Amino acid sequence: MFTHTPLRLATLALLAAASLTYALAAGFFGLEILAEIAILAILVIALDLVAGFGGMVSLCHGALMGVGAYAFTVAANDAGLTALPAMILAVALSTALAFAIGAVCARSTGIYFIMATLAFGQMAYSFVFQSPLFGGDDGLSGAPRPDMTALGIDLSDSRTFAIYALLLVALAYAIATATLRSGLGRSLVCLHHNEKRLRALGLTVWRAKATAFAISGALAGVAGCLAAQHTQYVSPGLLSWTVSGEALVVVILGGLGTLIGPILGAILFVILKHEISSITPYWHAIVGLILIAVVMSRAQGVFGFIEARMAARKPQAQIKKVKADA
Amino acid sequence: MKTTIRAALAGLATSTFMLSAAYAEDIKIGMLLPYSGVYAALGQDIDDAFALGLETFGADSGVTFDIIREDDEVKPPVGLAKTKKLILQDEVDVMVGIVSSGVLGAIRDTVDDAGLPLIVANAGNDEATGEACSPYITRISFSNAQVNRPMGQWLMDQGVNKIFTIAPDYAAGRQMIDAFTTAFTAAGGEVVGQEWPAFQKTQDFGPFLANAKASGADAVYVFFAGGEAISFVKQYDSFGLKAELPLYGSGFLTSALYVEAQGSAAEGVITALHYVPTLDNPENAAFVAAFRERTGRIPSEYAVHGYDSARALVEAVKAGATDRETLAAALPKVAFTGPRGDLRIDPATNNIVQPIHVYETVSGPEGLTQKVLATLPAEADPANGCEMPAVN
Amino acid sequence: MTTDLGFWVLQTLNALQLSMLLFLLSVGLTVIFGLMHFVNLAHGSLYAFGAYIAATLSGTLGYWGGFLLAPVAVAALGAGLYFSLIRSQRRAGPMAQVLVTFGLIFVAVDATRLVWGDLPIGIAMPAILDGQIALLGVDYPLYRLFIIALGLAILAVLTLVLTRTQVGAMIRAGVDNDQMAACLGINVERMFFLVFVVGCALAGLAGAVAAPVLSVTPDMGLQILIPTLIVIVIGGLGSLRGAVAGSLIFGFVQTFGAVLLPTFSAVLIYALLAAVLVTRPEGLLPAKG
Fold it and tell me: Which residue among A116, A242, A295 places its CB closest to the CB of C96?
């Protein structure tokens, strides 16, 4: 169901080339922005996987990312693990948590599903905030970056780190497409269209949903580890529902259900945020207005719009955009 | 993306230009404050007073000051990104600001590794001049413990033997109250109960007030700031507790910045802070007058942080500092008499040493004002795990 | 932990007061959802506007001026929102509604900052209600009793309207099955508008009433949003009884939890929410069966 049309391949190639060039040419602040974009891109790929393709709109992905970030920091600082095993542990934790949430919420649909994920996300947020183990409001500092000096790579250098982040984005994208192409991925998309039919065909629906959610949670955990490694500091704000909300905004801006759209959305959102906030301290309002405009125009986000226009030009072979009617 | 590439290339070009320009006699200052969000008012106070301070004291220093302002949005990752920009792209000689302890925690290592002097103009968490101290970080504002500790003995001297504490459950709240209770019990007092309402989640303090009332304490000692302080003081008054159970606390409870919003509920509340606008000394009179003329507002303790940061920087420059290393060496050595009184920096922690003023909020001709009851002598903070290496 | 009766009376009154405040907020939101299937995340922002407008008006017109006019102002704002955004997004599905109202929250927060500044503002309590009254052995603030009384009064009025008037019957029919109600000749669109505007007015009233007790800050809308959502989800979507039940549950769990089990109280309420969502997603006392 998820195919790489020429348009998508072209966009991917363009994105790869542009980001690599930028990584090599940019100044220090530009590299910071690039890393920020990469972290957001991984998170929104994770979200689009379940929300765009599976129709499971989640407001807990910020919390999953935060869990990954905190698990990584605690594992590296307190348990004394080096970066790579700490990452594996953190991702395992966020995966398990996502599986649990997906399983428990499997029977809920529509607005109830959204609110259930919101509830679980807030539970995680409150837990981390209250717990003295996690430093409370002051957060935890000292998360290490992976030590790749054996390979001759120094990740404390901004440029190398930015390229490492971009590679992780590519990895996340590959995992997402592989999932979508697999049996699970096809089940996921079909679940979105007609759950009853699949259940009648003998699929264990809750397990499919939970597994898909788990993979999404794994990617969110990777985003969290990357976030922790980037700033080398974590705070409870990472788990807030507004982060999940912003991720959803980015997915919509970019194009729900296209996987590439959200990446574009991430780039647009971060740049927009920085540009607008340097002009006015009221940039929240502007982002809000843009969001309202995008949703009300029923355009499918930037990339969705482009795809629709390209499809309209072709006389035959329409790329059907199936609307999510969650 | 194009605009950012252009901006990045422009940044590279400008920084090269600036490198050559830096040989001229000017000091580049990076101001990192919240200019948006709920703390924007604090950031604005610090910024206005800092500019005022530079004009007042820096005019005859023979040096020009360039200020580059960045908004940290009270978010640690944003603060960190902007810090890196100021250090690496703008190549500032010194950084001033930081309202939130969270942001300070995030940028501490970056500032320390880069050897960039940082004047902390607000963030009060004890670790910044404790375990996480750095020879490059000089705090001109206050530490959470410093503002509360002297009240322990003072309350005992007033005849208060049993105290009940309430503060929000987060790092700053805990530090403030723990400093107080340690001093209070050391002076012979008894803490009969403590409540820790959830930080920024609690709007109704009624349940905690009921507990305080039932505890048999002589008085209540609290820490709250901002919107929570307003709610708390008003609710305390609405329960009619002040008569039998006097309210004391850390001065942020009735800060000049928002005490008017509390109205008559704040009258009679006695708190301690390192600065109130009614301090009676010539430096403060000049400061208050100049600040009012410039902004139309009465300065708050946040403003005086900005003002004194500017003074400290100018003193360092007058002592001959011109770049990062010399500034880092000179800043911990400044000492002067400012609106707060005699100030100096403790070389063991790089934290400020200042007197603490106990005051009562009373009604005055122009609204609520602060009546200073006592000035407690300056006391350096204990080292708290700070091992200060020498600045090379 | 005290066995003092006064302590329990005090806490019960506190819990009731919190419940009534949340009831004013949640009743509007839950009927809007039950009838229009529209989830309005910006409801909290309407509450904030009510508080700010009341604070501003009370400067010139006194507390009661603000009390009466703030709900009207917020209702007008709600009417504007209805025609510009809500009506078109009503059938667009929950995700679109979540996003549009999320965008509204952003705009609202910055709008309040723009107009009223970043500093928290205060509003004086009305002189009549300033003071305490001795009740069941404790001195309880008169103003909080006023909140409880107001909440109960509104509950009584709404119950009366919904059960004894024709408009109420039409609303209940619409909540049950809006398409059938339309077939029966009920002007469903007008009903939606009416319900939405009244819901907004109640949110504004809640803001005006809460302002003297809490402080008025730009993020007060966000802070009250999650509790409100918890209330309507636990209580049951679309019904008055659900709003009452949810408010009481939340008010009591929160108040007693905060003093008896402080470390768990925050997680407890979310765990309760999750449990309800998973086992009875419609809530405890929903409008429909």
Answer: A295
Is C255's CB within 8 Å of B207's CB? yes
DSSP state of B299: -
Q: Shortest CB distance from B171 goes to which of A137, A231, A282?
A: A137
Instruction: Produce one character per residue of B184-210: b if its CB has 16 or more CB atoms within 10 Å, e if not.
Output: beeeebebebbbbbbbbbbbbbbbbbb
Instruction: Considering only the beta carbons, identify the residue of A252, A283, A324 that sits closest to C99.
Output: A252
Element (H, E) at B107: helix B101-114
Q: Please, are residues B264 and B363 in contact by the beta-carbon 8 Å criterion? A: yes
Chain A (12-71) residues lying within 8 Å, Cβ to Cβ, of chain B = 18, 22, 25-30, 32-33, 36
Cβ neighbours, 10 Å, residue B379: 14
Q: Is A87 on the interface with C (CB under 8 A)?
A: no
Residue keyed to tokens 């982060």: A243
CB contact under 8 A, C120 and B234: no
Task: From chain A, pick out residues whose CB is under 8 angstroms from the CB of C110.
Answer: 282-285, 288
Residues 87-126 of C with CB under 8 A from B: 113, 117-122, 124-125
Is residue C102 a contact partner of residue A245, using CB atoms and an 8 Å limit?
yes
Q: Which domains are delineated in chain C?
A: 5-279 (1.10.3470)
Q: Identify the three-state secondary structure at position A71.
A: helix
Contact A57, A114 (CB under 8 A): yes
Provide the 3-class DSSP secondary structure of residue A249: helix
Cα–Cα distance, B269 to A16 (Å, whole number):
62
- Nearest in space to B127 (alpha carbons), one of B137, B116, B140, B115: B137
Say if the Cβ atoms of B77 and A137 lie within 8 Å. no
CA distance C100 to C89: 8
Name the residue among C11, C124, C141 with its Cβ closest to that of B239: C141
Contacts of B232 (CB under 8 A, 6+ apart): B166, B205, B222, B224, B253
Q: Residue B379 carries which DSSP code?
A: -
Residue-wise pLDDT tens digits, C194-203: 889 999 999 9
Q: Which chains touch A (3 or more CB pairs under 8 A)?
A: B, C
pTM, entire model: 0.83
Count the helix, strand and coil residues of chain B and give each as a percent rounded to the nearest 5. 45, 20, 35
Within 127-186 of A, beta carbons closer than 8 Å to B belong to 129-130, 135-139, 141-142, 158
Q: DSSP letters along C29-49, please?
A: HHHHHHHH----TTHHHHHHH
Q: How far apart are CA A227 and CA B77, in angstroms?
A: 9
C108-160 per-position pLDDT tens digit = 988 888 888 877 787 877 878 877 888 777 788 888 889 999 999 999 999 99
Q: Give burial (CB, 10 Å; 0-12/13-18/19+) of C184.
A: exposed
* Cβ–Cβ < 8 Å for C74, C53: yes
Distance of CA C69 to the CA centre of its chain: 17
Q: How many CB pairs under 8 A join B and C?
A: 112
Residue A27 confidence (pLDDT) above 80: no
Q: Give dist(CA C34, CA A111) in Å, integer.
A: 12
- Contact assignment for C270 to A245 by CB distance below 8 Å: no
- Which amino acid appears at position C219 of this protein? D
Environment class of residue C127 by beta-carbon count within 10 Å: exposed (0-12), middle (13-18) or buried (19+)? exposed
- CB contact under 8 Å between B102 and A139, yes or no, is yes
Q: What is the DSSP code (8-state) at residue B298?
A: -
Contact C278 A104 (CB under 8 A): yes
Give the mean model confidence (pLDDT) for residues B195-200: 82
**Residue carrying structure tokens 């929160």:** C254
Secondary structure tally for chain A: helices H, strands E: 13, 2
Q: What digits encode the pLDDT tens for the residues A270-318? A: 888 888 877 777 888 888 888 888 888 876 788 888 888 887 876 655 5
